[in-house]
Design brief:
By secondary structure, this protein is of the alpha/beta class. 47% of the residues lie in helices and 20% in strands. 27% of the residues are buried. The structure holds adenosine-5'-diphosphate and guanosine-5'-monophosphate (5GP).
Length: 210
Amino acid sequence: MTPHDDFLLLILSSPSGAGKTTLTRMLLEECPELRFSVSHTTRAPRSNEVDGRDYHFVDRARFDALVEARAFLEWAEVHGNRYGTSTAEIDRARAVPGCTGMIFDIDYQGARQIGSKVNDVVSVFILPPSMPELERRLRGRASETEETLSRRYAVAEREIEHYALFHYVIVNDDVKRAFDELRSITVAERARRQRRAPLAEALLRAGRLS
Ligand code: ADP
Ligand code: 5GP
């Protein structure tokens, strides 16, 4: 991707149940100019999920064909299923008038892959206030079987081990306070020099022409 790009690429990552879906929804409501990156997954849809809105739900053969066709900017195996971000998803968002950035809800493996390919991506890791609270939230969501729940809980530690890959860490104890931090990060990142460079350069060009 080009340097001096004013398009914001914001990665949110966390162990399952720490609250990234909740915080992502709040940020999308507050910032309608940001788009959610809809990933592909081989996981089965949950009862409240809609194909094309929450994920593009595909079978393993289709997913592997997309990998083969190099359709993904990143992809990874998470909790026994495959998940990936297609480059087409980002190209589509860039083409939408008024859209100024994207939010990616992806795991640390995906964050690492995007970070190695794209210069000025912003990454945020969300921590639960404690492990018992993480388990309570996973159970409270009631979308998992006992087996998938304990798998998600077991890999939480491995995910937390990778917190140092991220630029920012938010502790989601009180959701309003956590959201305040996420909003502040978004506002500050928008004001970064390189994201304002296209405007500054255009002003300079206009000045030279007049
Ligand atoms: P993730 O997307 O990281 O798996 P979710 O956003 O689905 O997590 O949150 C998991 C559960 O915890 C949901 O039921 C959500 O309503 C709840 N939750 C999220 N943030 C908080 C918080 N700060 N305090 C209490 N419950 C929360
Ligand atoms: P869930 O099944 O709870 O929706 O997501 C499980 C995990 O997969 C979460 O950590 C989520 O961030 C991650 N995930 C979702 N989409 C992608 C993706 O496109 N790429 C990667 N690497 N991880 C993803």
